[in-house]
Specification:
The complex is a heterodimer of chains A (337) and B (301). By secondary structure, chain A is an alpha/beta fold. In chain A, strands 2-1-3-4-5-6 form a six-stranded parallel beta sheet, with helices on both faces. A six-stranded parallel beta sheet of chain A has the order 9-8-7-10-11-12, sandwiched between helices. In chain A, helix 5 packs parallel to helix 6. Chain A is globular, with a radius of gyration of 21 Å. With 301 residues, chain B is of the alpha/beta class. In chain B, helix 1 packs across helix 11. The longest helix of chain B is centred in the C-terminal third of the chain and has 18 residues. The chains are: A alpha/beta (337), B alpha/beta (301). The interface between A and B is medium-sized, with 31 and 33 residues.
């Protein structure tokens, strides 16, 4: 069938959402469908997010099936609209009132929040099938919009290339260096690591300078490798040679890092408030779920450093945990009549 | 674009019964007492089957709607010649399905009472310094409160409401998670756990506290109640049905340049006064060319 995958476009930005949409198109084509990606520019300030939603509303789209991935693409109208929700406009929901949200407690902010909630609920209710990318996203949809959705899990990028390797003496963490990913927490944790284990941070972001300054200030700069951007080949190598992966973002939607780590046979050390990561990491089995304090994260690193056999057992369990993830069943579910 | 003129035919009866419908009709038409200076009406609406001027209207070419208060006493002329019969209950309307419009006695204006989700309510309580949870009780112990401003404000900000009596529809229109009794629910066609929570007289407080603490359930029930009102008790919906039945409905003007955009805004639940609606229409109007809102959207704004 002819499938249009619909998603938001933020010009000059590229990340997990873009990879998700492109991988879905590829998977649809591999399943024998014709598929294309349809994107419209979006901005995030509270006034113009409505413009973007309304623009989707008015787009005429001829296809047998449309699959909307994220806000505001699910405002598309189609007799067979399937929504596979990666995220809503979180600034209006769980992020409201936070540092990266412009939905405050002023009259206009509260009215915009009210209206966006109503728009979202109506547009998402139109879906012939409503899936989410994770249980966390499904929970948010229930809490804020009263809608029931089924989590539908998919493989992370590079899934077919990631592989296990020897357990080295560094923990690895690829992430955007932004506030919600909490890179500073990991630097703090280093000050509590007694085993001499190093931390390799890969990625770029607005906090790069701050992270380096923090490490210098805390006296752990020599234990921290700031790798900046790493290409796919290097990323795979870092996963393969790590002792474990440390990943403790705040309330992650899904968390490709966890899935990639598991695929590479590495345990994951995370925090109790890390959202979608917790759907995968089972404390003491496939990694450690800490209370999110630097002390607890540091202690978890030391425990694995002291017992590589434990890291290996957890890594094997982690790899088994994601062994069944594949795109084929995902496409089958999304295109089912 | 001509906004249709509706000639109102009054009677000796209490005009209060039809007043909310007339107010709702103003969004899409010009309801007015018959006045030669305004020209011939595009349709008539009679306040009852004894309305002054009804016989003449029935003899004319313009379609006529008549509000039927006593279904067992419909005059022959009305039965034969009226184009639309407006009933107050579904049972009476049933035999006239092809030309009946239901204007239920229990009605409310969703346009005047926008839905507010439980999460946004909690944000309002934070703003106003109100306690959380905040449970409102109406019609439980005291006579029905009649403060037309204070009650909707309380209903709009509470986490759940125990409601019986005349404020029930308002509460539901506002998307309030409502606890009520079985007879109140049955009267408006509400179903337990979908539109409201039905509680016995001894347990509403406990039910309200539980509902306040269960955000997914409160959100689903609040939204369910809102949809019930939109489907069955919204006087704005009655107005559109009536205009459509008379052949002068808003769906009859698709040629207006911004009719689709206007309809989409309405379908998403956007109030006319919303800055979002005003902004969207203003921006689109800049392309559509100079005209007034009626020309651009096919309705009054």
């Amino acid at each position: 069938m002819d499938i249009c995958v619909c998603g938001a476009q933020v010009p000059f930005m590229s990340g997990g959402a873009e990879a998700h949409m492109e991988n879905l198109v590829t998977a649809c084509i591999e399943a024998g469908h014709r598929a294309e990606l349809v994107r419209l520019p979006t901005v995030w300030d509270r006034e113009r997010v409505f413009d973007a939603a309304l623009a989707w509303r008015m787009v005429p789209l001829d296809a047998d099936l449309v699959i909307a991935i994220n806000f505001p693409s699910y405002f598309i109208q189609h007799p067979r609209k399937v929504v596979w929700l990666a995220h809503q406009h979180r600034a209006a929901y769980d992020g409201a009132g936070g540092p990266w949200s412009d939905f405050g407690l002023d009259d206009a902010g509260l009215e915009a929040q009210r209206l966006l909630t109503e728009w979202d609920t109506r547009a998402l209710s139109e879906a012939t099938r409503l899936f989410t990318s994770s249980g966390v996203v499904a929970d948010r949809l229930a809490r804020y919009n009263g809608l029931a959705a089924e989590p539908l899990y998919h493989p992370a990028p590079l899934f077919d290339r990631l592989h296990p390797g020897p357990f080295g003496n560094a923990v690895f963490c690829p992430l955007r260096l932004e506030g919600n990913k909490r890179p500073g927490l990991l630097v703090d944790a280093l000050t509590h690591v007694k085993s001499g284990t190093r931390l390799a941070l890969a990625g770029r972001g607005s906090l790069a300078g701050e992270v380096e300054d923090q490490a210098t200030r805390l006296g752990v700069r020599d234990q921290l490798d700031l790798l900046g951007f790493v290409n796919d080949d290097d990323l795979i190598d870092h996963y393969a040679s790590a002792l474990a992966v440390v990943y403790a973002p705040y309330d992650e939607d899904y968390g490709y890092v966890t899935l990639q780590a598991f695929r590479a046979g590495k345990p994951v050390i995370t925090a109790v408030d890390s959202g979608g990561v917790l759907e995968w990491v089972e404390d003491g089995v496939t990694g450690f779920v800490t209370d999110g304090s630097p002390e607890a994260i540091g202690a978890a690193i030391d425990r694995l450093a002291a017992d590589p056999a434990l890291a290996e057992r957890m890594g094997e369990a982690a790899r088994a945990r994601v062994a069944n993830l594949a795109w084929g069943p995902v496409v089958d579910r999304l295109t089912a009549p | 674009m001509n906004i249709p003129l509706i000639g109102l035919l009054a009677s000796q009866a209490d005009p209060g019964a039809i007043a909310p419908l007339v107010v709702a009709l103003r969004k899409w038409s010009r309801p007015n007492a018959v006045d030669r200076a305004l020209g011939a009406p595009d349709a008539y609406l009679a306040a009852d089957s004894a309305a002054i001027g009804l016989d003449a209207a029935l003899a004319g070419a313009a379609p006529v709607a008549v509000l039927i208060d006593s279904p067992s006493l419909i005059p022959e002329a009305v039965l034969e010649r009226a184009d639309v019969l407006v009933f107050r209950d579904a049972q009476s309307a049933e035999p006239f399905a092809d030309r009946a419009v239901l204007f239920p006695r229990d009605h409310v204006s969703t346009a005047e009472h926008p839905s507010i989700s439980p999460f946004v309510r909690s944000r309002w309580r934070e703003r106003l310094g109100l306690p959380d949870p905040l449970i409102v009780r109406l019609g439980v112990l005291d006579p029905w409160p009649t403060d037309d401003q204070a009650v909707p404000a309380a209903l709009a900000t509470c986490s759940a409401a125990i409601v019986r009596g005349p404020w029930l529809l308002t509460a539901l229109a506002l998307g309030t998670p409502v606890i009520t009794d079985a007879s109140s629910a049955a009267r408006i066609g509400a179903t337990h756990n979908i539109h409201v929570v039905v509680a016995s007289p001894t347990e509403p407080n406990a039910r309200a506290v539980a509902l306040s603490g269960d955000l997914p359930r409160a959100t689903a029930i609040g939204w369910g109640g809102r949809l019930l009102i939109e489907e069955r008790h919204d006087v704005g919906g009655v107005a559109i049905s009536l205009l459509d039945a008379l052949g002068i409905g808003p769906t009859g003007f698709p040629e207006a340049p911004l009719a689709n955009l206007d309809a989409e805004l309405a379908a998403l639940g956007t109030p006319d006064t919303s800055s979002v609606a005003q902004r969207a229409l203003r921006r689109a109007a800049a392309v559509a060319g100079p005209a007034d809102w009626a020309d651009l959207t096919g309705r009054r704004r």
